[in-house]
Amino acid sequence: MPTPAVYSFTRYLSAKRTVDDRALNRHVWNSLRSALAAYTPLNPPLTVFEIGAGIGTMVERVLEAHLLPACRYLLLDADSTNMQAAARRLAAWAEQRSGTTTAAASASPLALPPLAAFQIAAPAIPAVDVFTYAHDLFAFLADAGPTPAVDLLVAHAFIDLVDVPSTLQRLTAILRPGALVYLTINFDGDTILQPAIDPPFDDQIEQLYHATMDARIVDGRPSGDSRAGRHLFGNLKQTGIQVLDAGSSDWVVFPRGRAYPADEAYFLHFIINTMHGALRHAPELDPQRFDAWIAARHAQIDAGELVYIAHQLDFLGRYTG
């Protein structure tokens, strides 16, 4: 595909669905399946809370895998556009499987009013009541108060975007004792782009790009860690969350012949554009040389040549209090 003139974050989230499907660690996924099968909610039905939920692709994934019993699934994302897209996608998902979306049969366990509340019902799929919320995570937690209501916390490709210790500490206030914690696609310090253009310059760009993650400030708070994956072992332990399983979940995107599967060319263009946005004003880089490097990476995608790898880790934990 030609290099896009404009970019859509919603399309990026959709395009990376197939990338994430390959990347998710199967061993950790199966450990989650076993832990859920053995888990008995203190106050049925099971309540799942996903933060940074995007357009609902994780809901689709767990339903397709028959991972969940009948449950309440709370989706939180700061972008209301994402939450609206999630409601549309999940309705389409049910319809494609001869199912329906109707009014939720249960109430949200949190006092905050949801943006939408509906039930997904499809053949061979336990009924799931979905509640969507468009809020900043910290504002949401402040408004929700310390209400232990969550049996399974999910954060997919999100935890490495926040200050991990303080975020985990805040999240424990809504976890029930023994709650499961599933944290996936946590970046861990390696970005690989092949073929090389100029190895020393390639390495400098990678290092500077990772440094922007470590220096990120959102609303006056540190919001990122380029080695979040490895640091989660200690951060989870310090927050009273026992690590039950962990494993790598690398993004690996490469062409088959001269074409990328699904919409993964768009995914790659979005990644390169993100790097450009992060470093376009970096004083360490000559602007013309950097712009030429970015253009060369986009050209590699257009030619079906670029290979992209990002090292990440998945975790399954249990909140011990």
Architecture overview:
With 321 residues, the chain is an alpha/beta fold. The chain is built from 11 helices and 12 strands. Strands 1, 2, 3, 4, 5, 6, 7, 10, 11 and 12 form a 10-stranded mixed sheet that branches. Strands 8-9 form a two-stranded antiparallel sheet. The N and C termini lie far apart (50 Å).
Q: What is the average per-residue confidence, as pLDDT, rounded to a whole number?
A: 95
What low-confidence regions span 5 or more consecutive residues with pLDDT below 50?
Answer: none
Along the chain, the helix and strand elements come as: HHHEHEHEEEHEHEHEEHEEHHE
Strand content: 25-35%
Instruction: Give the class from helix and strand content and strand pairing.
Output: alpha/beta
Biggest beta sheet attributes? 10 strands, mixed
- The number of helical elements comes to 11
Label the overall shape.
Answer: globular
Which radius of gyration do the C-alpha atoms yield? 20 Å
Number of strands: 12
Distance between the termini: 50 Å
Kindly state the percentage of residues in helix: 25-40%
